[in-house]
């Protein structure tokens, strides 16, 4: 994913990878995810797209700070959820125990 490499280069150029920490990056991710909620509540698709993109950027940086590849993380998660069973309850998927 070319954009992933662009994000990592940008984070290096801005000093984020040298000066941030996983905990500080987590705070940034929570901030961006909260912007997703705000955009949903305001029914603002433009802000929603921006907040989703910003959230993904923070997760790419978080993975890099921890010596992980975000695509490997996604693949690992998919390999688990693809086998998961459960049901929809009030619009939320609830996995079986």
Question: Topology, please?
Answer:
Blueprint: H1 2-13, H2 16-19, H3 22-41, H4 45-65, H5 70-81, E1 86-89, E2 92-95
Antiparallel strand pairs: 1-2
* Number of separate domains: 1
* Structural class computed from helices and strand pairing: mainly alpha
Helix content: over 70%
Q: Could you name the CATH class?
A: Mainly Alpha
**Poorly predicted runs of 5 or more residues:** none
Number of E strands: 2
The termini sit apart by 34 Å
Order of helices and strands: HHHHHEE
Provide a brief overview of the structure.
The protein has about 100 residues and is mainly alpha-helical.
What does this structure look like?
The protein is mainly α. It has a single domain, classed as Helix Hairpins (Orthogonal Bundle), CATH 1.10.287. It is 71% helix and 8% strand. It is built from five helices and two strands; from the N terminus they run αααααββ. It has a two-stranded antiparallel sheet. The longest helix has 21 residues, at 45-65. The protein is globular, with a radius of gyration of 16 Å. 9% of the residues are buried.
Keywords for this entry:
Helix Hairpins, mainly alpha, single chain
């Amino acid at each position: 994913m070319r954009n992933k490499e662009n994000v990592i280069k940008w984070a290096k150029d801005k000093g984020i990878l040298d000066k941030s920490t996983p905990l500080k990056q987590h705070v940034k991710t929570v901030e961006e995810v909260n912007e997703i909620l705000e955009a949903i509540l305001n029914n603002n698709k433009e802000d929603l797209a921006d907040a989703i993109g910003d959230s993904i950027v923070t997760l790419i940086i978080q993975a890099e700070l921890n010596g992980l590849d975000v695509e490997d993380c996604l693949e690992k998660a998919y390999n688990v959820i693809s086998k998961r069973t459960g049901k929809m309850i009030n619009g939320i998927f609830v996995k079986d125990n």
